[in-house]
Write a structure and sequence with these properties.
241 residues; 36% strand; alpha/beta; Vcp-like ATPase, Chain A, domain 2; 7-stranded mixed beta sheet; Rossmann fold
């Protein structure tokens, strides 16, 4: 493992093999070849447990350059499109890179575009942290300017204001049966993407609002939490016939 977590009582520390971790419970000499579940101790005899990074850990620990797509939305994209190992994915609006990292860890080959070089550089570092630098390529640029030369993909994922413009052209860049997925924080962009997908002749076009609520359990009974409705955004899908 190139990076992993040391955990104790709900606290998590992201570490690299061989480094020295300073905590309020003492100093840990991080092992060079740790195994998940292994226990390590600080110089004060306080113990931490080794845990391998998984997708939700990436969401919590990657360096952020904006609000990343949350795991529940990524799960809908994966479940709806069936993206799998060996698929070619074109992604635009990299940002923190959480979606690209998830897809890379599924075994997909991902080409992702980020308009801002400083954000792209952070995303590259995040891909190395997620152990997908070999399968996720982060490019700086505008996808609309390079789309013509990129070939066809099994999945195109978009999280950009100009997503409708890309959707208008996406049919030529999907393999038969391939999907486009647009994440939109605002319903206006979702509607424009939905209409663009229909005009482009894609099938199975639909837009979903993503809502998830926790359950509260106490001595009075059980019900969904009243702390917010769990709305994050809108996902629009279309498929090439």
């Amino acid at each position: 493992m190139s990076t992993f977590l040391l955990v104790r009582d709900g606290r998590e520390f992201l570490v690299h093999p061989g480094e020295e971790l300073h905590t309020d419970l003492g100093v840990v000499e991080v092992p060079e070849d740790p195994k998940p579940g292994q226990t390590v101790e600080t110089h004060l005899g306080e113990s931490f447990t080794v845990r391998a990074l998984r997708g939700p850990d990436l969401f919590d620990h990657l360096e952020r350059t904006g609000a990343p797509m949350v795991p529940k939305d990524i799960g809908i994209v994966v479940g709806h499109t069936g993206v799998a190992s060996g698929d070619r994915v074109l992604d635009a609006g990299t940002g923190t890179g959480v979606l690209a990292a998830y897809l890379g860890r599924l075994g997909a080959d991902v080409l992702t575009f980020e308009a801002r070089e400083e954000f792209a550089e952070v995303a590259r570092e995040n891909m190395a942290l997620a152990d997908v630098a070999d399968t996720v390529e982060v490019r700086t640029g505008d996808i609309t300017e390079e789309l013509e030369d990129l070939g066809a993909f099994d999945l195109v994922t978009l999280d950009t204001p100009d997503a409708p413009e890309v959707v208008e052209q996406v049919d030529a860049h999907l393999v038969p049966g391939g999907y486009v997925s647009v994440y939109s924080p605002f319903v206006e962009n979702a509607r424009a993407s939905h209409e663009a997908a229909r005009e482009a002749g894609l099938s199975d076009v639909e837009t979903l609002e993503t809502i998830q609520r926790r359950m509260d359990f106490d001595e009075r009974g059980s019900r969904p939490t009243t702390k917010g409705v769990g709305h994050t955004g809108y996902l629009t899908f279309g498929r090439k016939t």
